[in-house]
Amino acid sequence: MERETLTNILNIAVKQSLANLHTSLIAKVTAVNDSTINCKPVINRVVNDESIGLPEFVEVPVVTLQGGGSYTMHPIAVDDYCLLIISERCFDRWYSGQDYKDPLELRMHDYSDAIAIVGLNPLSSAITIPAETTENGNRTQIGEYTHTGDRTQTGDITLTGNYTQVGDMEITGDVLITGNLTVTGTIAAGNFTGIGGGTMTSTSSIETTGEMTASGVSLSSHTHDYTWTAAAGSSTTSAPN
Hints:
By secondary structure, the protein is mostly beta strands. The chain has a domain at 2-125: CATH 2.40.50.230. Helices cover 9% and strands 26% of the residues. The strands form six sheets. A five-stranded antiparallel sheet has the order 5-2-1-8-9, with no helix packed on it. The protein is rod-shaped, with a radius of gyration of 35 Å.
């Protein structure tokens, strides 16, 4: 009888310890701050057969995919889901910029030491795993970017900085350039349209196998009217050879 009682006591103690050993949990974003988020866990705890919701977690650091000075940061919105990882020890001193120090407090696996990984979805809104890297939404590029392999872009690209293309580029659709265009080499094109009253200047030869028209006048088939000074009459020249 005493052995059974001791076993029950130990089981209860282990169960209570595990109930307060926090490792990870799923939460929903409630606010987006400058570099942290607020979020609320979406799975309640059951205490004495009563369902109890956990409070909002505030100022939770967010994991960023980065290395060196490069990083990829995605926007975060209220109602996004995230996975909260609970640190084994209090990380307050590390978070304030101190490495290799003792914990500020001796708490362990505490809700106060949560770090968020945003980008988790329930089955109803799960994103299909693609066969290749896929980006959805607008993109702002600051700094250098190297890409190897094929890429399909649907949507706008806003680029701040230099862009270097090594290899061929094929464009299907319109290209609008505001500013100067410098070309070293040959331009082979179908229709070429200039708008906005700008000037296209070339310091090399321009060749075309099609028709060239300036202000409605054909270069290959235009004629000239002229007046004879002796006969005071008029005539028309033949088309140029």
